[in-house]
Design goal:
The structure is a single chain. It contains 9 helices and no strands. With 180 residues, the protein is an all-alpha fold. It has a single domain, classed as Orthogonal Bundle (Hypothetical protein af1432). The termini are far apart.
């Protein structure tokens, strides 16, 4: 599957701009993680792009529908990573691809949320302010803090270092992702 084919699937299954933006943002973080850990950039980016593709229309069947669609296309590695992108689903994370989507998903969304309440957005953002927001349980309350911690642990990174890494990716891609 190519990135363009994945993008077509995303746009077929996902209508809201906010969820599409989340998909593109996680995709860019995943692409950067592939570079960092020696993975296949296209595969990592596709998993980031499609991990929540069925969430909007079928939240009660998420991620089963996108996983099935990928399996039908013989994209088993992508399907497996997406099937386990939340640790409570108890899908074994066997590859770095499987682990990185857990590390990227919740935390990327949280960092974006934190940037939206800053006068300068992502500009000048530091891990310290994100760490402080993580301790404030009423801020972005739906973000599972334990999942954020587990994600960093899965890829063997200190949480602060992972936050710094994601912030840097988002700052570099800020314009193309519409995060200004």
């Amino acid at each position: 599957m190519t990135y363009e084919e994945a993008k077509e699937i995303l746009y077929e299954m996902t209508e809201t701009e906010s969820l599409r933006k989340h998909a593109h943002t996680v995709s860019e973080v995943m692409r950067a993680m592939a570079k960092k850990f020696g993975g296949d950039e296209e595969k990592f980016a596709i998993v980031g792009l499609l991990h929540d593709a069925d969430y909007e229309k079928y939240p009660d069947k998420h991620p089963d529908l996108i996983v099935e669609k990928l399996k039908e296309r013989e994209e088993h590695e992508l399907a497996h990573a997406i099937a386990g992108h939340y640790t409570i689903w108890n899908v074994p994370r066997e590859s770095m691809l499987d682990k990185c989507i857990v590390a990227a998903d919740e935390l990327t969304g949280f960092i974006i949320a934190a940037s939206l309440v800053r006068p300068t957005g992502l500009k000048g953002m530091k891990a310290k302010s994100v760490m402080k927001k993580l301790k404030t349980t009423t801020f972005a309350a739906k973000v599972d803090r334990e999942e954020v911690r587990k994600g960093a642990e899965l890829i063997g990174m200190d949480l602060k270092d992972l936050i710094d890494f994601i912030i840097e990716v988002l700052q570099q891609k800020q314009e193309s992702l519409g995060l200004n």
